[in-house]
Amino acid sequence: MARKKAGPFPSRDEVLRYIADSPTPLTKRDLVRAFQIQVDDRPRFKDLLREIETAGEVDRGRGRRLAKPEALPSVTVLRVVSVDLDGEATATPDRWDESDGPPPRIFIAPESRPGAALSAGQRALVRLRQQPDGSYAGKVLKALDDARQARQLGILRRARTGWTFQSADRRQRDPLKIDPADVVDGEDGDVVVAALETRGRLHPARVRITERLGKADDPKVFSLLAIHAAGIPTEFPAEAADQAARARFEVPAGYADLTELPLVTIDGADARDFDDAVWAEPDGEGWHLVVAIADVAHYVPAGSPLDREAEKRGNSVYLPDRVVPMLPEALSNGLCSLVPGEERLCLAADLWIDGDGRLARHRFRRGVMRSYARLTYEQVQAARDGSPDETTAPLLETAIAPLYGAFASLAKAREARGTLDLDLPERVVRIGEDGHVAGIAERTRLDSHRLIEEFMIAANVAAAESLAGSRLGCIYRVHDAPDPARLEALSDALSPLGYRIAKGQVIRPRAFTQVLERVRGTAQAPLVNELILRSQAQAAYSPDNIGHFGLALPLYAHFTSPIRRYADLTVHRALIRRFSLGAGGTTEEEQARLEDVAEHISLTERRAAAAEREAVDRFTAAFLMGRLGEVFSGRIMGVTRFGLFVRLAETGADGLVPVSTLPDDFYHHDEAAHCLVGRRWGRVFGLGAAVTVRLVQAEPLTGGCLLNLVDADEGAPGELAPRALVPGARSGRPRGRPPRRGPRRR
């Protein structure tokens, strides 16, 4: 199609006609270019497109491409493409002509019946309902495949009554019986992958063991469970592995010699790859910083086998006992890892900041560098605090002191912007030499952590600014403002605790920071930080920049970790082309696919986060198995009609206190006040209350813990929930017969 000549702002009818006449679906960027929309008019144009989508006048298909609406039949045959960790399936029409463009997005809600879950590749007859955004919600009417298989992870058990399969899915509590003929060489305690085949509503699902992962008491199996459940690829295709193995260190023409700069890497003691090095020096009233990043684009050209596999993975996955890397170890731990004393290729950002920490100017160049030292956060902080060791002592004045000077300026700018600074403790699982958990602790956050964070943010901003001012597309790191409905829920949750978020105005990160400053150092701080986190939108990748709300930045992109994040690699390639820095720049094909790539890597990021969280939960539960019956202090972090979710102070583990185990009473779930209220005795179990619990059960297979309150019927209700939490709640027991222990009466 010919591009529309520049002219007045297009009407709604002109846009609709252009979309309808297009032989292929169009991205928003296609339309911006087609109508020659000027920068100042782009917000208005995007509002027009949003109105058109909401009205259902166009369909938004895969990759957020717009096309004329073509509703699917209300009942049709679909084929499942993938199933996420929550059981929600994505599907496409079983017969779809690719010449009609990408198929519409179709989501199928999880099935609750054992063995009824859909699996990738399966066909089903589905009733569809079109959504306002052009996607479809589906409900399965009938499975059409002869062998309807649902892949599940679980443990094989043998009892006197026969073999059973206990699913690792917490939602499926009842074990399933297995025909002995379907257990070949099975042993009690095997962790397995099973195929569940339904055989009609009147018959139980058939369970067939398809793969063995290990024994239930083998700690290595906890990470394998998370990896298999998330569908994370672990083996590199032969052509990708061969490409990495053939890579060699050579300095291309035009690379700057940065080997004299005393660049250092600063990472955690358990870091497994080093993709960033830093240096700083005074520059008038401000500072000159250099952030040197491994030049992954030199070794991984766009469209190569390595690139296709890196895009597929999207990111590395970091589990307590292993890493599933985005790139083969020959690169991630070899040629692209900035190990000390070895020459490495890099893409360096020179950043000049003023005395107030604001980015004044920047440049990007490719070079060859040599790391002067591999330092840990603890080493650097100890040196700064006056206790240098033999490695940091020679670097204290020449390297470490200037870094902290520049950090002080950057921190000043951050405070002026009013960023959202959540204090969320991170659990660190320490694995012993025998592979078992040696301990679980909270990671200490030091100024050295913040130093590196600020340097990385500054480099990321410089990368985003460079590409935003060019004709090249960029995958931005975007973070939208919170949804008003979530803000309403947050306000309702904070109000009983004595805090408030102003409503009815444009929300700024500073509004949350003010609450966090008030609560800092109090017993309620962990809960308030958690509640504010839950209220936030999820950060994602997108070629459409909307800014980063949490960092209070209008432009932001990921540039500093191309070894472990595919987004950063795409940004590197765009910068190489933008500044004519040699081979390995972005291609037209890559530019055309940015929306698809951004959507995909946003999903792989969430997939990795879920797998990492599940693995930590399983290792934690395994660690706690040896402490059954012990008493722990904790805090109520969630309240539902079926019980209380309590976070243990010592390990950060979350466990459930079932409502049936609470002191005998009729309990009402007050959703607005986030508490359970005993109707007869007036006891209140509220969000944020400190409690003492006994560990009753820890299940490594699912990562879940079961808890009971200790002496919960002693003392006044006010000890378990602030009095303001439930207006009118009684402050003590009624006179007369005390509550008896026993099963809860409904």
Spatial gap, N to C terminus: 68 Å
Compute the average pLDDT.
Answer: 84
**Helical content band:** 25-40%
Describe the main β-sheet briefly: 5 strands, mixed, barrel
Structural class: alpha+beta
- Please, how many helices? 17
Quote the beta fraction: 25-35%
Shape designation: globular
Based on DSSP secondary structure assignment, what is the total number of beta strands? 33
Give the neighbour order of strands across the main sheet.
Answer: 3-4-5-7-6
- Supply Rg: 28 Å
Low-pLDDT residue spans: 1-5, 713-746
| Number of discrete domains | 6
Short descriptors:
746 residues; alpha+beta; OB fold (Dihydrolipoamide Acetyltransferase, E2P); 5-stranded antiparallel beta sheet; 17 helices; globular; disordered N terminus
Give an overview of the whole structure.
- The chain is of the alpha+beta class.
- It folds into 6 domains: 12-67, no CATH class; 75-143, Nucleic acid-binding proteins (OB fold (Dihydrolipoamide Acetyltransferase, E2P)), CATH 2.40.50; 149-216, OB fold (Dihydrolipoamide Acetyltransferase, E2P), CATH 2.40.50.700; 238-480 and 539-614, no CATH class; 484-535, no CATH class; 628-725, Beta Barrel (OB fold (Dihydrolipoamide Acetyltransferase, E2P)), CATH 2.40.50.
- The protein contains 17 helices and 33 strands.
- The strands form 10 sheets. A 5-stranded mixed β-barrel has the order 3-4-5-7-6. The protein has a 5-stranded antiparallel sheet with strand order 10-9-8-11-12. The protein has a 5-stranded mixed sheet with strand order 13-20-19-16-15, with helices on one face.
- Strand 8 and strand 9 (162-167) form a beta hairpin.
- Helix 11 packs across helix 15 (566-578) and helix 12 (484-494) packs antiparallel against helix 14 (525-535).
- The radius of gyration is 28 Å and the shape is globular.
- The relative contact order is 0.08.
